[in-house]
Design brief:
- With 336 residues, this protein is an alpha/beta fold.
- The chain has a single domain, classed as UDP-N-acetylmuramoyl-L-alanine:D-glutamate ligase (3-Layer(aba) Sandwich).
- The chain has a nine-stranded mixed sheet, with helices on both faces.
- Helix 1 runs antiparallel to helix 10 and helix 4 runs parallel beside helix 5.
Length: 336
Amino acid sequence: MYPVRQLEAAIAGFAGRRVVIVGDLIADEYLYGKPARISREAPVLILRFTDREVRLGGAANATHNVHALGASASPVGVLGNDGPGDEVAGLFRKAGISTAGILRAEGRLTPMKTRIMAGGYESTRQQVVRLDREPAGGLDPHVEDALVWRLREIGAAADAFVVSDYGYGVVSPRVFEAVLEIARPRKAVVAVDSRYDLLRFKGMTAATPNEPELEALAGSELADERAIEKAGRAVLERLEAALLLVTRGSRGMALFEREGPVTFMPIHGSDQIADVTGAGDTVISTFAVALASGASAGEAAWLANVAGGVVVMKRGTATVSPGELVQALTCDGAAL
């Protein structure tokens, strides 16, 4: 059991922690429409446009989550010299987050995920389709050079690094090696979330794959907890990591410690979720900040579990505040 006061003390330690978030900065665009009629041109629904909203996505959402938790968040990444890049930079400035570590690259597209949302004002809006705008290829050598330079400058005082890899090329092998070189002498936490290539990131402190990603890495179906434990142990060894936190959707999480046991944690809160968009960013941000604040692996994992449970009850990419975490813990009374 983790007493509430013990977890609250860990949350209080978030303030003042310096976290650098390295990765793919994404613009999450939401276009809202009210169903009007069926098109005569094709058997599709016509939506009458009502609103547009842009939120921080990918590594930008992880940055926003670190900031919302009360830690100092410094994003390091690349935006294009385009409209979506301007909007992401503007959202950072509005939130009070420094953009000193962000490069603007001529000729590179800012990744944008456009979600078409259908529903009336008094009804639940449902995602109809998503359109992704993606940059081609990796970074130009001169952009990579500049990115590594800024990473070394900004990361010199970091307590933790969150590596958020969405496959758009910002976290190149050279960039990740720079993260490890900066982190090692400081014994800073390095937490990695990679959608497609986790095994490339060896030597980190912790990784946070979801269960389907773990299944793909293991190359076999994970039918029960015994299979998950076997696969998790194998992946932990291959990653040369200290910790592996596997998110399991409605079945909670599983924490693997190189020098400790496997802990299966039940889902926090209701399994009647509103939206899982960006929940993984919340989990890794909370886990990394808690570890950097001196929390044990179990405490950090449970706080990440609680944060994930809170954020999936919100629509779209969202954040969790220390107050919301404390409130959720208070309602629990104690955590397993």
